[in-house]
Amino acid sequence: MAAKSTAVSVIPKIPLDEAALILRELCEAIDNGLDLDAALLERFADAKLDVSNAVDRRIFFFAKIDEELAAARAVREAWKAKMQEWDAKVQQLKTLEDRIWAATKAVVEGNPELPYQGQYGKLAVQKNGGVVPLTTEFDTLDADTIATFGIEARFYKVGYSMDNAAIRAALEAGEDLPWARLGVRGTSLRVKPVPGGQP
Predict the structure, then answer these.
(1) Gap between the Cα atoms of 110 and 153, Å rounded
(2) 142: Cβ–Cβ under 8 A, 6 or more apart, which residues?
(3) Helix (H) / strand (E) containing 68
(4) Gap between the Cα atoms of 121 and 115, Å rounded
(5) Residue 181 is inside which H or E element, if any?
(6) What b/e string do you get for 135-164 counting C-beta neighbours within 10 Å, with b at 16 or more?
(7) Alpha-carbon distance 136 to 165, whole Å?
(8) 197 neighbors 121 (Cβ within 8 angstroms)
(9) CB 116 within 8 A of CB 124
(10) What CA–CA distance (Å, rounded) separates 58 from 62?
(11) At 126, is the secondary structure helix, strand, or coil?
(12) 69: which of 23, 51, 148, 162 is 20 to 30 A away, CA to CA?
């Protein structure tokens, strides 16, 4: 009877450059949504590696991953600082634009007889679209307010929530509600460009 072989096959150590390649493959697995747990079990199965190689590979991976983490965090912080700078710049420009629009609108409204026509276009103030603003004498509604102002049930919803649509419809239909009124549409400055006259 032939003797049973007891020889143990030795898996050669994987060079560090190949370990770096495996790390890149694992990162790609994360990006591609693959089963990372299965990939890790396959790569780090101790049954397939001698102890020394397994230890070296883990130490190498920990060091490389720490390096990648540090680099990623540095990039993130740099982008965060840059985004804060751009946010401040955007806010600064928006504030400047709003002030120029407001000042220009005031000039046009204050001197409507002037022809605000230039080479690039025309300035005009027009009424805003949409519904007329609605104002009530109170911000919140409760039983006491309903009783005090004599508010009909058709003007509020369950839980004492104002039914602005119903209130608006009544006011627009000519009903007199002493505790509510329609406002006046606002105006906005409009630039009407001249064809081909862009600056």
Answers:
(1) 45
(2) 160
(3) helix 51-110
(4) 11
(5) strand 180-182
(6) ebeeeebeeebeeebebeeebbeeeeebee
(7) 13
(8) yes
(9) yes
(10) 6
(11) strand
(12) 51
Give the integer Cα–Cα distance in Å for 86 and 97.
Answer: 16
Using alpha carbons only, give the angle 65, 67, 70 rounded to the nearest 5 degrees: 110
pTM over 0.70: no
Interatomic CA distance for residues 72 and 64, integer angstroms:
12
Average pLDDT, 10 consecutive residues per value, the chain (199 residues): 43 56 70 66 56 69 83 91 93 92 90 85 86 83 86 82 89 91 85 69
| Count, residues in the chain | 199
Kindly state the tokens that stand for 141. Answer: 């509604």
Pairing between β-strand 156-157 and β-strand 161-162 as defined by DSSP bridges: antiparallel
Token pair listed for 115: 């022809």
Label residue 174 left, alpha or beta by phi (over 0 means left) and psi (-120 to 50 means alpha): left
Give percent of the chain with pLDDT exceeding 70: 72
Strand pairing report for 180-182 and 134-136 = antiparallel
**pLDDT for the residue numbered 80:** 92
Tokens of 70: 């540090």
Between CA 19 and CA 26, with CA 20 as vertex, the angle to 5 degrees is 90
The residue whose two tokens read 């450059």 is 17
Return the domain boundaries, the chain. Answer: 11-112, 121-193
